[in-house]
């Protein structure tokens, strides 16, 4: 093949642009989902300048912390970011020192202060396992099934000071099958496609192509957190409602009912 100066210049230029369209990221989150997002973002050439995750539990590090520590990525395990409703200064300063251009929050159980959310020049993006504005809050997958929704999905949105109310960056959906549980829905679609979408969202931001679509208020819902204490089955309902209630709690927190005192 004959290589000309123009050919070489074109290849050099395109690869330079590709290289430049990468971001310095702070990953705030936990779990295997957070670990997969972290690993795939690094594979795409983005630089994770800090991982902020939960403290070790019974001497065991979170999966995200494990892989980040192995890579030599700075890992911070703050038990909390706020005290008495106010940001903890030394925690915020440690966060700011890593110099992130974007916060990526794939699965975050902690309350992150707004001065951290808004600090990077590109703000913060969050993964949420519902088609927002429907099922805002912590038990979104549960309520998708409990309510008998015909479709499920996830949203990646720009964080603001509300509860899952920020502008939408992207959304994807799938049909809900008759015998889906929280686990099957998560493992079949919400987890694998969610990881891919988080990587896609970061690249859209890096390329300056990420939309910010305001959430409509029509169809918005927040049903609250499901736990063992409120997972009791009401047997005075149609069979389909009982079916949806049970699968919407399977396997966490688990639905239950008393029959003959047992």
TrEMBL record:
SUPFAM superfamilies in the record: FMT C-terminal domain-like, Formyltransferase
Domain Formyl transferase N-terminal as annotated: residue spans: 24-202
Any GO MF annotation of the entry: methionyl-tRNA formyltransferase activity
Gene3D superfamilies in alphabetical order: 3.40.50.12230
Pfam families documented for this protein: Formyl_trans_C, Formyl_trans_N
Domain Formyl transferase C-terminal positions: 227-262
GO cellular component: cytosol
PANTHER family named among the record's database cross-references: METHIONYL-TRNA FORMYLTRANSFERASE, METHIONYL-TRNA FORMYLTRANSFERASE, MITOCHONDRIAL
Protein name: Formyl transferase N-terminal domain-containing protein
Organism: Danionella cerebrum
């Amino acid at each position: 093949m004959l290589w000309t100066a123009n050919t070489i210049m074109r290849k050099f230029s395109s690869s330079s642009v590709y290289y430049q369209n990468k971001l310095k990221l702070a990953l705030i989150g936990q779990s295997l989902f957070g670990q997969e997002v972290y690993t795939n973002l690094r594979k795409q050439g983005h630089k994770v300048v800090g991982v902020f995750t939960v403290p070790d539990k019974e001497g065991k590090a979170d999966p995200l912390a494990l892989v980040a520590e192995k890579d030599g990525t700075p890992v911070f395990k703050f038990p909390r970011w706020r005290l008495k409703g106010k940001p903890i200064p030394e925690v915020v300063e440690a966060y700011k020192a890593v110099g992130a251009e974007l916060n990526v929050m794939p699965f975050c159980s902690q309350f992150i202060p707004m001065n951290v959310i808004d600090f990077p020049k590109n703000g913060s993006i969050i993964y949420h396992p519902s088609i927002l504005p429907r099922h805002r809050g912590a038990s979104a997958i549960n309520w998708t099934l409990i309510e008998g929704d015909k479709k499920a999905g996830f949203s990646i949105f720009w964080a603001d000071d509300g509860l899952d109310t920020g502008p939408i960056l992207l959304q994807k959906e799938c049909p809900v099958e008759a015998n889906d549980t929280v686990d099957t829905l998560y493992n079949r679609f919400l987890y694998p496609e969610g990881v891919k979408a988080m990587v896609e969202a970061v690249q859209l931001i890096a390329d300056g192509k990420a939309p910010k679509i305001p959430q409509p208020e029509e169809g918005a819902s927040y049903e609250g957190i499901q736990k063992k204490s409120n997972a009791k089955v009401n047997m005075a309902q149609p069979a389909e409602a009982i079916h949806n209630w049970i699968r919407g709690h399977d396997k966490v927190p688990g639905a239950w009912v008393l029959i003959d005192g047992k």
